Each structure stands twice: as C-alpha cells, then as structure tokens.
C-alpha cells in the first residue's frame, strides 16, 4: 500500500511517502503568507498545503493518508492551523476515496520508540536506526528537521497498526482530527 504520512505543524509540515515498507519520499514543507489577518493567512497557506498534498498523492498514486493527531494546546493560531491541516488531509481522503487514519502523538511515540514521551531527538534517532540509508536518500533533510522525521514515524506506526478508515458516512465521528 502506498501511504502518505504527515506531521502537521504550524510552521513546518513533515511529509513522507511509503510504498509498502519502502520509504520513497520525505520532505519538510514550510509555507508563508503575505496576508496580515489570521483568517486570510490561514486560507492562503491551507490552499498551498492542500494543493501540494494533492500533487504528491497523484504523483505517488497514494492509497492511504495518515497524520498525527496533535493535542489542542498552545495559542489559538497554532491549534487552528494544525487542526485545519488535518481537516484538509481528511477532505482529500474523502474526495479521492483513500483510506485514512489519525494517530495520537503519544501513540506514535510509544509504538515507534517504546516511550510515549519520547523526545524529538529520540524520534529522529529511531528513524535513522530503522532506515539506515535515510541520510543518503534524503540529504536535504537536516539533523533538526524533526517534522520530517516525525512523518516517517507516523507512517511507520500507521502502516503497522492498521486501523484504516474508509471515507463513508458511518465513521465520521470527528475525533480523528
């Protein structure tokens, strides 16, 4: 199964794509906007993000999308943006009838490293351990590009745990965002 995994953040977004067990793509997206008002800025950035997700989904013939469910903490702008990115992913899944799942952050950490409170460095180090050729395949991903490493962890956990949803009205609880 070809899976797009996303670590939605307010400043950077990590994106990885797997073809079965093979990691074929990994990047860190960073979008800015010249708009001043938060709502205009949010709409501008979400439009860019959605179109990039769509481009990648088509290019890699993605069959499923997963993302990290981030606790609703921090300032409102941060929370709104992260939740909106997650909603954009779910809308993409619904529109193209892709399987999807949101995975809580502590679940990703626990299943990936064995520690539900793993640090960003522990997450990165585990990615480099599981994918020893990561730095050769993706040299543009810096040592502190934690969102990119987290997207790899999210995709690894989602693929191994299953729990995929299909875009039907019977499973629209809202708790996955």
Report on this model:
Helix content is 46%, strand content 19%. It contains six helices and five strands; from the N terminus they run E-E-E-H-E-H-E-H-H-H-H. It has helices at residues 38-59, 76-95, 105-113, 120-130, 134-137, 146-161, and strands spanning 2-7, 13-19, 22-29, 64-69, 99-104.
List its traits.
177 residues, alpha/beta, Nucleotidyltransferase, domain 5, five-stranded mixed beta sheet, 5 strands
**Which structural class do you get from the secondary structure elements?**
alpha/beta
- Indicate the overall shape: globular
Please, what is the CATH homologous superfamily?
A: Ribonuclease H-like superfamily/Ribonuclease H
Give the low-confidence spans.
none
CATH architecture: 2-Layer Sandwich
The fold-level CATH name is Nucleotidyltransferase, domain 5
Strand content: 15-25%
What is the H/E string? EEEHEHEHHHH
Indicate the radius of gyration in whole angstroms. 15 Å
Q: First CA to last CA: what distance?
A: 22 Å
Mean pLDDT: 88
Write the layout of secondary structure elements.
Elements: E1 2-7, E2 13-19, E3 22-29, H1 38-59, E4 64-69, H2 76-95, E5 99-104, H3 105-113, H4 120-130, H5 134-137, H6 146-161
Helix pairs in contact: 1-2, 3-6, 4-6
């Amino acid at each position: 199964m070809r899976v797009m995994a996303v670590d939605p953040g307010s400043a950077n977004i990590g994106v990885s794509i797997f073809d079965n067990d093979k990691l074929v793509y990994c990047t860190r997206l960073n979008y800015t906007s010249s708009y001043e008002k938060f709502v205009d800025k949010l709409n501008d950035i979400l439009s860019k993000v959605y179109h990039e997700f769509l481009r990648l989904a088509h290019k890699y013939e993605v069959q499923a999308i997963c993302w990290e469910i981030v606790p609703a903490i921090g300032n409102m702008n941060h929370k709104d943006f992260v939740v909106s990115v997650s909603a954009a992913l779910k809308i993409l899944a619904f529109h193209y009838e892709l399987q999807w799942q949101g995975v809580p952050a502590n679940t990703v950490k626990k299943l990936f490293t064995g520690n539900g409170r793993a640090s960003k460095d522990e997450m990165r180090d585990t990615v480099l351990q599981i994918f020893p050729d990561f730095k050769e395949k993706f040299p543009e991903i810096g040592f502190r590009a934690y969102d990119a490493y987290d997207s790899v962890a999210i995709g690894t956990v989602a693929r191994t745990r299953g729990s995929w949803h299909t875009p039907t009205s019977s499973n629209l609880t809202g708790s996955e965002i």
